[in-house]
Fold this protein.
Amino acid sequence: MSDADPNEPANEDFQIPLPPASFSFLVISMSAQVEMQLGLMHLGEEEKPEPNLQLARHTIDLMGVLLEKTKGNLTLPEQRMLENSLTELRFRFVQVSGEMAKASPQKA
């Protein structure tokens, strides 16, 4: 017999409700991925995760492709959201790259 509370859903049955699929959610999801790849967002880890610049750059580039391929098909708020997200993520990428360069031993 199990000690589990019968009123609590089983782990395999528990599902977080997902928001509706939308362009905004896509941009927010990709932005969050980049922040995790840059080590700026960590979920539950005690130590700050090591940035993966190659993966972050790739995801930023994918967002750039999305911007180019959707030109003329986005509402003004959608376009601004994507452009602003890209600007912010590119800035953060440069910041993290610089921090990593300072932290690594200089080569002669």
Remarks:
- The CA atoms of residues 5 and 11 lie 12 Å apart.
